[in-house]
Every structure is written in C-alpha cells, then in structure tokens.
Design goal:
Immunoglobulin-like; single chain; 3-stranded antiparallel β-sheet; elongated; alpha+beta; 156 residues; 6 strands; 2 domains
Length: 156
C-alpha cells in the first residue's frame, strides 16, 4: 500500500511543477528539523557530562559478588552537587587474577555504565551493575578488583 502512495507522489512531482516545489520545500524543512534534533541531542549529551565533577559523586558500600558465570556490583551513589540531578555514571571496572601478592594478571577491564533512578542534589540511591566479567574467565588464584569513576552524567 505504501508503494502506491509513493508512486502517486512521484507521478505528481513529475506532472505538477508546483507540487514538486512544495515537495522540495517540505523535504528541506524535514532535513532541517532532523539536523536540529540531532545537534540538540549531541549538545545535551556533551553538557550532561560536564555538570557534576566526579569529586561531587560519592560511591559507598561497593560490593562485587558472583552471580552465575559473571559478577554483579552493588553499591550506593551519593550526589553531592548542590544544583544538578545525577542521571548516570560510568565505572572502569578491573578484575585481576592474583596467584600471589606480587603476581596479578588483569583478566577483565571495561567501562560499566550505571543508570540509577534520578539522584537529586544531596540525595543517594542504590545501584547495581550486572554481567561483569567474562563467561569463560577461569581464575587460577584469588580475585582482586578495583574501579575508577570515569564519567558522570547529570541534568538540570
């Protein structure tokens, strides 16, 4: 059915010059609207990463635990910003297989995004990141892990 409509539009564009002009104007307006939405979205995404400095985000009671063949990370995030609402953050999670105190191999390292409920200024929320690690990862020693806060996203 859609192809009949498109065929009708094409015939009208060929037969009627005024229709062709209207079609060109509508296409240009649509392209402009799409460009505006994409640019606005990119600007908002960029600005969201600069509203709250990482030092104003506190991570509490982080706990890594086995969940099936991978690991889950639970904790609480506190927003110490006085102005912006925390909407998400990214942790660089590193898992190491340590056969002794001085010999550790990094077996997993990846940025893991956590999306919490919105955390208003001065408040805290619990979060969980699931599926950390490789399904094929087999430890020869003990597991050590650490993290670094690499990105904070916020909205007004």
């Amino acid at each position: 059915m859609e192809w009949l409509f498109l065929l009708g539009v094409l015939v009208c564009a060929i037969v009627f010059p005024k229709f062709r002009k209207v079609l060109i104007v509508l296409a240009a307006l649509l392209a402009g609207l799409i460009a505006y939405v994409v640019i606005s979205s990119n600007v908002e995404e960029s600005e969201s990463k600069n509203r709250i400095p990482p030092r104003e985000v506190e991570l509490l009671d982080l706990r890594l635990f086995r969940s099936g063949s991978t690991y889950d990370l639970q904790g609480r995030v506190r927003n110490r910003s006085s102005k912006y609402t925390l909407s998400g953050f990214t942790l660089q999670v590193t898992l190491e297989d340590c056969v002794d105190e001085n010999t550790c191999d990094v077996v997993y390292q990846k940025g893991e995004s956590a999306f919490t409920d919105a955390v208003p200024p001065g408040q805290a929320r619990d979060f969980q990141i699931t599926g950390i690690g490789d399904y094929e990862m087999r430890l020869k020693g003990s597991l050590k892990w650490h993290y670094a806060l690499t990105e904070v996203r916020a909205r007004e």
